[in-house]
Design goal:
The protein is mostly helical. It has 2 domains: 73 residues, Winged helix-like DNA-binding domain superfamily/Winged helix DNA-binding domain (Arc Repressor Mutant, subunit A), CATH 1.10.10.10; 44 residues, no CATH class. The protein is 53% helix and 4% strand. It contains 6 helices and 2 strands. It has a two-stranded antiparallel ribbon with strand order 1-2. Helix 1 crosses helix 2 and helix 2 crosses helix 3.
């Protein structure tokens, strides 16, 4: 299980500000460095687009969380630093709920399907692990396993 509390599809945007604040907590960064940083944090599972990063940075600046420097990099303000403390990594909201876990699983599956559909990835090399996951989900649901489509 990933040590980070963010989802991969519909809930990406909710986790993105936390990741951005985490990345900016060490030093100012430009939009490309933030996109690279998120991609690194997610171990390649997700790279936000400019259409996600730059509107977010504008919104965070209007909230007083970041400021844009003359060289185009963004840095956390004092308000942003205080809000960034503990905002990334393990949640201080308590343990992950079943709803969170199901949403993360759904998001990861949607991402894998999108990769396959767009030619960005295939399941070669992952078949056995996917079968194990399917068997565990089937056992959890209490339904007979259907071996037809892998």
């Amino acid at each position: 299980m990933w040590p980070f509390r963010f989802a991969m599809s519909r809930r990406r945007k909710r986790g993105l500000p936390h990741m951005v604040m985490y990345l900016l907590s060490s030093s100012p960064k430009n939009g490309v460095e933030l996109m690279d940083g998120v991609q690194s944090i997610t171990r390649g599972w997700w790279r936000p687009t400019p259409g996600s990063i730059y509107p977010l940075m504008k919104e965070m600046a209007s909230q007083g969380l970041v400021r844009k420097l003359e060289d185009g990099r963004f840095e956390l303000t004092d308000k942003g630093r205080s809000e960034a403390g503990g905002s990334f990594g393990f949640s201080s909201e308590g343990p992950m709920t079943m709803s969170d876990a199901v949403e993360q699983a759904y998001s990861a599956l949607s991402y894998a399907q999108d990769l396959k559909r767009t030619g960005g990835g295939d399941i070669a090399g992952y078949e056995e692990r996917l079968r194990e996951i399917r068997a565990q989900v089937t056992d959890l649901l209490g339904e007979p396993e259907n071996q037809e489509n892998v």
